[in-house]
Specification:
Elements lengths: L12 H10 L8 H13 L4 E5 L2 H11 L7 E5 L4 H5 L7 E5 L10 H7 L4 E7 L8 H11 L2 E5 L7 E2 L2 E2 L6 E5 L12 E5 L5 H8 L5 H5 L19 H12 L1 H26 L10 E2 L6 E3 L3 H13 L15 H6 L6 H9 E3 L8 H12 L5
Parallel strand pairs: 2-3, 2-4, 4-5, 5-8
Antiparallel strand pairs: 1-9, 6-7, 6-10, 8-9, 11-12
This protein binds pyridoxal-5'-phosphate.
Pyridoxal-5'-phosphate binds next to helix 3 and helix 4.
């Protein structure tokens, strides 16, 4: 079976792990954490980067930094991973689900504008598949209504819109280094802080609510409990893997883009014939080749395609369930229609895309796909 995803470690990941062990300390804030944070900062134009245990926790940190109160609302896409919504609920805020644009499946700024109320505090956008989600429009909308913009950039490290880096538009943005992401350390994430006013408190929240980060820098002579935080620091062992991956980030992206383009070119004619839609990338967006997805006319056709690919020993997977249709989402949702999110959750499927996918295996995937003529 050709898997959907397989993480690849072809750089210094193993030797850096040895080095981390040799350093005698593999908890957080070590040498590799500093290196990874410096690289991520550089990739975000000098913003502060804090490694976290995962992207979900970076989103939870964002929610804590906003001091959300019960009754506050945060507008999020319906078509996203649960964490984009659930992170904002710990303080009693309510996620409000917006629909997506039909071309990119990114959260639709026009729908968001309709959902803003006096209770809205923030908008959290997701750059789906690493294609920028109208960040300039959202920047404008947030400024007009005095809202905080957060970018859940789990898919979009290295992407841009009109030359501006994804993850630098909002006051805060978050990254994921889960095994399924372009670069990975198994489980991991980062909070990127573009608003300098939030940096000190973010450091405190990540360190269980203490000012330990200032203590480690020698800025205070003892550290103390200063806020209500949690334990969101990444182990230096995982940071060591991440540094190895970040060193190869450009090469990884070039290879992923090559695979992505091959799918785009070699599936185009077949897709048109069977009425499947390939990913659409607006001209202004430089995407990250995070995933290659197809959309079919119905759930029935999509599921028949997945079964057909399995018969040809190729693993393909669907993606998000529209959150407004999930059990928790339904308990929160006030009936606003999100037809694009509903449709995508039923019709979208993702093809294998990882840098160790050989040309021969990709040819097998393409041959299997193009032999599908319908249910
Ligand atoms: C858009 C989005 N946000 C957040 C997450 C959660 O990431 P993590 O597993 O690092 O917590 C995911 C996971 O795939 C995701 O797709």
């Amino acid at each position: 079976m050709i898997p959907f995803n397989r993480p690849s470690f072809h750089g210094n990941e193993r030797s850096y792990m040895e080095q981390a062990i040799g350093n005698g300390s593999i908890s957080g804030n070590g040498e590799f954490t500093k290196m990874a944070e410096a690289t991520l900062s550089q990739l975000h134009g000098g913003a502060t980067a804090l490694l976290t245990t995962n992207c979900t926790h970076a989103l939870e940190m964002s929610a804590r930094l906003l001091d959300l109160q019960p009754g506050d609302e945060v507008i999020v896409p319906s078509y996203t991973f649960v964490s984009t919504a659930s992170a904002f609920m710990w303080n009693g805020a309510r996620p409000v689900f917006a629909d997506s644009r039909p071309d990119t499946l990114n959260i639709d700024p026009e729908d968001v504008a309709r959902l803003i109320t006096p209770r809205t505090r923030a908008i959290c956008i997701v750059h789906y598949a690493g294609v920028g989600a109208d960040p300039v429009a959202f920047e404008r909308l947030a400024a007009e209504h005095g809202l905080v913009l957060i970018e859940d950039n789990a898919h979009g490290l290295g992407g841009s819109v009109d030359g501006r880096t994804l993850g630098t538009f909002g006051a805060l943005s978050t990254l994921s280094f889960h095994e399924t992401k372009n670069i990975t350390c198994g489980e991991g994430g980062a909070l990127i802080i573009n608003d300098p006013a939030l940096v000190d408190r973010a450091e405190i929240l990540r360190e269980k609510g203490t000012n330990r980060a200032r203590f480690l820098r020698g800025q205070v002579d003892k550290y103390t409990w200063a806020d209500i935080g949690s334990s969101w620091v990444m182990s230096d062992m995982l940071a060591a893997i991440l540094v190895g991956q970040l060193e190869r980030f450009d090469d990884i992206q070039v290879e992923r883009m090559r695979l992505w383009q091959r799918y785009r070119v070699e599936l185009a004619e077949w897709a048109e014939r069977v009425g499947a839609t390939l990913p659409q990338v607006p001209d202004e967006a430089a995407h990250t080749a995070h995933m290659f997805h197809l959309r079919f006319a119905s759930l029935h056709v999509r599921d028949a395609f997945i079964a057909h690919m399995r018969e040809h020993s190729v693993m393909t997977v669907f993606h998000y369930q529209a959150l407004h249709e999930s059990p928790v989402g339904m308990s929160l949702h006030e009936g606003h229609a999100c037809p694009v999110a509903s449709e995508a959750s039923q019709t979208l499927v993702r093809l294998p895309l990882f840098i160790d996918l050989s040309d021969a295996d990709q040819a097998t995937v393409i041959a299997a796909a193009t032999s599908f003529t319908g249910p």
